[in-house]
Amino acid sequence: MKEMIRKPVIYMAVLATIGLCAYQTNTQGPENDPIFQNLDPSVSPGTNFFLYANGGWIKRNPIPPAYSSWGIGNVVQEEIRGRLKKINDDALNANAPVGSATQKIGDFYYTGLDSAGIEKAGVTPLQRQLDLIDNAKDVQDILNAAALLTTTGTRNVIGSRVSQDDKNSEKMMVQLGQTGLGLPNRDYYFKTDARITRIRNDYTTKHLPTMLALSGWDQARADAGAKSVYNIEKFLADSSRKLENLRDPYKNYNKMSVAQLNALTPGIEWNDLFKKLEYISVDSVIVGQPEYYRAVSKALKTFSVDDWKAYLRWKLISSYAPYLNTAIEEESFRFSGKILRGQKEQLPRWKRVLDVENGLMGELLGQLFVREYFPEKSKERYVAMVEAIRQSYREHIQKLDWMSEETKVKALAKLNAIHPKVGYPDKWKDFSALTMNRTSYAGNVMNARHWSYGVNIHKFGKPVDHLEWGMTPQTYNASYSPSNNEITLPAAQFLIPGIKDDQVDDAVAYGYVAASTIGHEITHGFDDEGRQYDLKGNLKAWWTPQDSAKFTKRAQMLADQFSSYVVLDSLHVNGKATLGENIADLGGIVLGIDAFKKTQQHKEGKKINGLTPMQRFFLGYALGWLGHTRDEALANQIMTDVHAPGFLRVNGPFSDVPEFYAAFHIKKGDKMWLDPDKRVKIW
């Protein structure tokens, strides 16, 4: 991390000391126990622990038609949506001052619900961009149009952003990465199995021509344009890296001057293009995948201007489809929702609008959300839990038999420097420059996207803001930033549906939060990718070569373990692509166990509803992955996501943990059993 924020760290340490003396040990009856009702006693823990822990809930909770999966995150999200709806309903009817958070929220919500106005507008909110594309006469005009689309949130061939230099984390740099595809990733253009072939055929023969026709083209032109779009995308896909190859920070770090970038991409004058992208005085950039931009340069010469017009039109229409008239919105959902993810129907409009608003203006809502729904007492509990996990990690590092003292000293320094952001920001984003009105839903989305783009690019050349959050408090997720050496733990991530925080016993809380979230995110600082960054967030070799080799050998065992799991049809988990998450899961579990062993509840050893404290810990962890997924979405996840499916994020790492075997009496011959020499131990 760049510069530690000292005061909060001291504050957290004090709270940790207080918290260790006052852990919650509330007991629950079976009817309000957050784990007991989820059990499926017909499944043996040694056969499939995930289904033993969650099968009862899964049987009672089929996936609703509007969803591709259904689990605890969805249930939490439903609770949050209800709270955000109240905030929006109040804003909708308030006579709020122009420029206030309430006015902006109310106006956005109004246009999103105005289905008659959206229908009447058709594609006219995009007319400026459409005209620019239609009037393009040469390659330079195509690049100018692509730049404008980029500034208003439409992904196309240019994948630019401002973020920290991996090798100098105090510096904000312009970065270029691969992008430009319409299917989820490169493999969808080349794999020949039945599932992917079916998706690709729908995309080329139905979805693309239908969307182009709905944008205003006659069918003959739309059919021809669809072929142009696909040919360009496949050309770019051929020079795009695979999912697992995007995880090597050194290979995806290629710093070069603008002159060198121009030489890499003949025909593209980047100084001029950066001006169109609204950057000021760019002298050097970091290119993630140079071969992709070499292919872009070649594609601009290979394909005609008319081909590119079809491509940019498609990118624009598809990007704004959810905010346009019914025919466009429904065709977009038919392919993206039904074909790719298996959803049967859309969410109600008010929920869709809230989700969009949350993505665009989340911190505006977050300020109102935490004021009402996240008490200070809850924040104190999880601040203390962060420190309990940190101490557990210190002890693990000190006891490692495979790591040298030299590397241990540096690992402890990095661990001590990790900065936790818990609950909600200490400083909120400034939304004063964002304008909202009651004229157009797509127009408001475009304003918000352009505002967000401007916020990002104006970080170029500025000091890194360590108080800024990349998530909103009402987000059910968490993260680790290697460049900042910090973890972000939003308030919503701590929620268990239907139960107040002070009613959750420590065994469940340590599994659900300390292990699956806090320990997981801290371990990301020491996974196969995060370990390559030092305590200040710089990409730097700080391990001894011998220790690095020992780590890699252990990590490879985990990659092999997960690659052996068959998920669906012939689809295996991609052990290389998911390695970082699997290391973090395993690390979080073992850290959470040792932190939990220090609590009063574990020391007393009393059962709750027939379950020992350690059994409740493992069930609490499994609660974090409660849910099930449609086959279409599962297949898409295997192809595109660096996370393994939820059931394997329970069964996979548990098979490596000795305490799990003891807690549930797992024996040789059980499906959950791994021979001791096959069990992975890293941290």
Describe the overall structure.
Helices cover 53% and strands 7% of the residues. With 683 residues, it is an alpha+beta fold. Helix 16 packs antiparallel against helix 17 and helix 19 (506-524) crosses helix 23. The model is unreliable at 1-23 (pLDDT under 50).
Topology at a glance:
Elements (H helix, E strand, L loop, with lengths): L5 H15 L28 H12 L8 E3 H21 L8 H13 L1 H7 L5 H8 L4 H13 L8 E6 L2 E9 L17 H21 L4 H19 L17 E3 H7 L5 H7 L7 E4 L2 H13 L2 H16 L5 H16 L7 H25 L2 H24 L5 H13 L1 E5 L17 H17 L21 E3 L4 E5 L15 H19 L20 H19 L2 E3 L2 E2 L6 H18 L3 H5 L8 H11 L3 E3 L1 H10 L5 H9 L3 H7 L19
Terminal Cα span: 21 Å
Main beta sheet: strand number and arrangement?
Answer: 4 strands, mixed
Could you tell me the number of beta strands?
11
| Shape designation | globular
Enumerate the strands of the largest sheet in spatial order, edge to edge or round the barrel.
Answer: 2-3-5-4
* Helical content band: 40-55%
| DSSP summary: helix tally | 26
**Mean pLDDT figure:** 94
Show unreliable segments.
1-23
Radius of gyration: 26 Å
**Residue share in β-strands:** 5-15%
Quaternary class? single chain
Question: Structural class of the helices, strands and pairings?
Answer: alpha+beta
